[in-house]
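Protocol step 4 of 6: structure prediction from sequence.
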Amino acid sequence: MMHFGNAERYINSLLSVGESFRLNGECFTIVDCGKPTCKSGEPKTDIYVGAKSNSGQYIELKISFKKENADFLENKTTAKRAEQLFGSIWMDVVINSTLSIKRHFIERPLIYKNSYGKTSKGSITLGWKFELVNKPGGNLSGKMLLTEEQIIDIYAGTNLDYDKRNAYIGAQKVQDSGIANYVLNIDYVNSTQDVINNLIPIEKYIKKYHNIYFACKALNYRSFERKYDGDRPLAVFIDWYVCKDKLAHKYVFDEPLVTKGNKVSKSLLDSMRSLKIKTTDDINNQNINDPSIIYSG
């Protein structure tokens, strides 16, 4: 099975300038194609095709390519993107989502003296990122209650930033090129016509995949490496502080995607330094407020 990038490049090669295909009973020739790009991030369109029919009709196929096992729809959700998706009530939408599974956050360890699943030994949780997926993913996930318009935007990118909506095809900026209008959800195609035959209009695609879920993935400080995976916006974060010469914590659910990894890690590291803690090996029942958050294996 091809890696996503290789599969996308292969499909692009099938949709090159000069190739022909039939759509809705008409014959079209591709006159423009490419992968839309923008200054930062990515548009929703993965593959752009401009084609002309024998009668002179011009069409744009703006394809969002999703391999059949693809999960992620939005895997780096920011406050700005959440507002674009959910409108002025975006904060309430995220808060209500995370509060609906609050128990699962509180039941999880926050300090890992030994590895657990994909969490490495020495990890200390800073908080959780907010992702949109097309299938539930573990305890820290749930179903989003969204309108059809919001679901279409998640797939098509109608309300993305100007730069992402009006992406470049080669050196040319093309209006709305970054807003997808078709989905290709297949792992293998063998011809230009095969690609066209498997395209699904966005509106039809969401009739089948009308449920969208959120998933919260941990951002951990790895104490032995002294690293974490960047200044990510956090839907829920841990406020680490010192209380009575012990490391204490508080869950914060009401500041979603506003507080980021750098701020939380600074609070954690300041607290650890004041208690002369360098790694999870230095944490014990005497210098932590709640030993139940420790996973020892």
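Step 5 (inspection) to follow. The first strand starts at residue 20 and ends at 23.
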